[in-house]
User: Fold this.
Amino acid sequence: MLKLGYRLDLYRAAEMRVPIEAIRRCEELGYHSVWTAEAYGADALSPLAHIGALTSRIKLGTAIAQLAARPPATLAMQAMTVDALSGGGRVIIGIGVSGPQIVEGWYGQPWGRPNARLRDYIEITRKVLDREGPVSHSGPEMSLPYRGPGALGQGKALKSILHPAARIPIWLASLGPRNTELGAELCDGWLPMGLGPEGTGPFAEALERGRARRAEHLRDAPLEVFGGCSVQITDDVRGALDAMKPLSAMYVGGMGSETHHYHREAMARRGFPEEAARIGELWRAGRKQEAVAAVPDEYLEQTALLGSPRRIRDRWPAVLAPGITGLIVSAEQIEAVELIAELAGTRDQPAPGAAVAR
Assistant:
């Protein structure tokens, strides 16, 4: 059965307002998880502690926690803490690199070699979470204990004082083949950013290479793959599409640089290379309204269900990209949340139970 997640856009909000009633309804409807994010405002972990205290079963995921925001040991500490407070077996760590504008502009860190840094970051986080021994790691981008410039040489390999309440899975968000391959090798799940109608097909080789080297503790475990979809019940499809275009234009045109722009690449990969290039050109030239107008309706509707309940029912198969095991839904209306639960068949199923703390 397709698993459903519920996406929160708190990271884009000027004020912190968590839609607890909608989240509780998702839990009642059998949704698998609720997902937070971060950019350069609200962080991804703190809201999960709040949500965990006001719910009992729904899993708590980050999509994504930015790699540059905190050292891997800190992410593991926060995840173990939130998981323990929420009963155990509920937290999922979704990790991503973000982009050079945020990494260098917000966190003051070098972009460096993100693929190598991701490997080090995931491996260290896993070691901290598994608590099998004092954590040491020697990698090209990160090492524990630290022995680099400024070190006293007194660092000691340490093991978490807090025992994890349950095993915490690590998922990876990626757009390109190298990081996708890395996720299939080291992670429990994959958060592909921008799957088109072909689903995971274009990533088949990268996924297969990663699976061929899959970590021993994951060898018999399937790789979860969660896509995304926006849902709005409305009598004005045209208006709904137009309302989505400014944000899409900002991501495709403005969330990156001329040389490093993953959202533009994702749009091109989904079948709109000329439109992606044009939006980028217009945005960089300061012609933002033209960039907004250049976002194709067809591109938006690949990952959006808009219109009457009947139209949404008819278009439901179109958003189920081949290869996904779950769908993270962005919806403000309770009616939309309920409709998707009905279409996915989760409505009469219990939400996943929390693991027993050990």
User: Anything to note?
Assistant: Residues 235-307 form one domain. The radius of gyration is 20 Å.
